[in-house]
TrEMBL record:
Coiled coil: none annotated. Residues 9-66 form the HTH lysR-type domain. This is LysR family transcriptional regulator. The keyword Transmembrane helix does not apply. PANTHER family: HCA OPERON TRANSCRIPTIONAL ACTIVATOR HCAR, TRANSCRIPTIONAL DUAL REGULATOR HCAR-RELATED. Keywords: DNA-binding, Transcription, Transcription regulation. Belongs to the LysR transcriptional regulatory family. The keyword Transcription regulation applies.
Amino acid sequence: MGASRSREPSIHQLRLFLTLNEELHFGRAAARLFITQPALSQQIRELEKRLGVGVVERSGRTLRLTEAGQALLPEARAAIGAVDRLRRVADAQVRQASGRLVVGTMGAEASMKHTRSVLGLLRDRHPGMSVQLVNLGFGDHLAALAQQEADVVFLRPPVTDDIEVHHLATEPRVACVAADHPLAALPALTLAHFSGVPVVDMPRQVPRLWWDFWAVDPRPDGSRVRYGPVVTDMESLLHTVAAGEAMCFLPAAAREYFARPGVTYVDVADLAPSTSALAWLRARRNEATVRAVRHAAREAMTRDVTDPQTLPA
């Protein structure tokens, strides 16, 4: 195949190339992409023509990347990643220009008094602003900020260094265990009682500093936590706990919002409390919509300063 190339590869072709690499089968890749197999083959041939090198080798039913294809793979990923980031930043700018705010919430944060207070005041102060609420899981509540898929998020710290927070409230944490777990029957518990008891784990994309806090890892005596199954959302977490496969620590509000058969919540005397916070990307703090919700949070907390559950800013 000649070394010259007349045109640059398209992002669409690079996406097809990455999917084909994951499947290593034209039929499966085409089905996953919702296109026909001949159309996929044609696009890959066009990609090779534009690049000037072959990227896949076909031998009967066997498919593999060529040496050139392997070398180009990380560059294709980087190119697509850059375009995706460009699109997310552009979308965030469109939202800012149109006065549209995407608010992420995690767990039961959307139902909390402080969240409703902030959003209510925001609507009063900015009646023309469009506010969209999206529910986020464990794996994406911080990533939604970093990737600018949400402008602000109501969450439970800690957070990474690129994120700023305004603390809204504090409350105790409790242990969530299977209803028939031996610890559920004890009158008073400390963290030492949970030594060796497996804790649910989080997906790899969740920052460990966040889950280390919630898992209390390491424990006060320096021992490390033993982890159980990975969970992705509250329902899978509660199912895993009810099955007796692992336990976890949650905000005390879980007693009200996440009561489930087979699960019980117990107090732990030496377990540090948790805080609720409004979070935003540090680099976006002065954007008009983000600034508006930050000011609403500050004003809402000033109004509620007499509430013992509220932390001053």
